[in-house]
Amino acid sequence: MIVLLVVYAKKVDWEEVWKVIRDYNRVALLSAVGLVVVSYLIYGCYDLLARFYCGHKLAKRQVMLVSFICYAFNLTLSTWVGGIGMRYRLYSRLGLPGSTITRIFSLSITTNWLGYILLAGIIFTAGVVELPDHWYVAQTTLRILGIGLLMIIAVYLWFCAFAKHRHMTIKGQKLVLPSWKFALTQMLISSVNWMVMGAIIWLLLGQSVNYFFVLGVLLVSSIAGVIVHIPAGIGVLEAVFIALLAGEHTSKGSIIAALLAYRVLYYFIPLLLALICYLLLESQAKKLRAKNEAAM
């Protein structure tokens, strides 16, 4: 993917890229910033759901702060650093046991991918994403994948609604299957978050491409990023967007400009803020832990 990006980058008119960035509509840019805030708040709801699921008593504002820090680090430095390592570090510093933190992480990542699976299933099955000829995946294969994803959602909901054995133990950690209503809530919240992320890129592209097509390309690039396993998906996001959008839909320069702006707004600025929040939280952790333990 990196090689592919380099090949495309050599063909990009970088003067056009900087011109697009300089000429961004202020309303669209501010709207994108607002949606970034909305997305991070929605992601915080994943850990609030986990708070309800686990029954722990950490203050909601502490949960939202930890979630923000972890998400920002997760996006840029990988799941192992942000999603797992940072969560264990911060939640344990605030007084939660390891078993509870494992359940929080498990539910958070499940929530995120349930929304993805639902949206991708609908969009891939509907044929919204038009794949180029001779691409890595055929259009028919993508539709079949979409149907398979929807079947996963149906099976998960069936188990949540009708399974008699609702407890399972994985590597010594006890997990409880949620109710079907809880599962639907997970899907709804996560789906909205993925749609907001797609809307950010759509705004930065100047709304020149069908929104659902942009969302579909984002979903394709996200799973490609997981497979390639590069921190922040650097190169993967750009390569997929250029391959699927450049040409009749919009110019390469506009795509690169939009994705550069997206990375700054959604990845790098939140990461800087998260680093500051992390240092502040670490400095107050002992005091907050004592307060939490007294409240419990």
UniProtKB/TrEMBL annotation:
Primary location group: membrane
One GO CC term on file: plasma membrane
Pfam families the record matches: LPG_synthase_TM (PF03706)
The keyword Protein biosynthesis is annotated on this UniProt entry: no
Keywords, in A-Z order: Cell membrane, Membrane, Transmembrane, Transmembrane helix
Membrane topology: Multi-pass membrane protein
Transmembrane domains' residue ranges: 27-43, 63-83, 104-129, 141-161, 182-205, 211-244, 256-281
Subcellular location: Cell membrane
Xref: InterPro entries: L-PG_synthase/AglD
Entry superkingdom: Bacteria
UniProt-listed PANTHER family: UPF0104 MEMBRANE PROTEIN MJ1595
Name of protein: Inner membrane protein ybhN
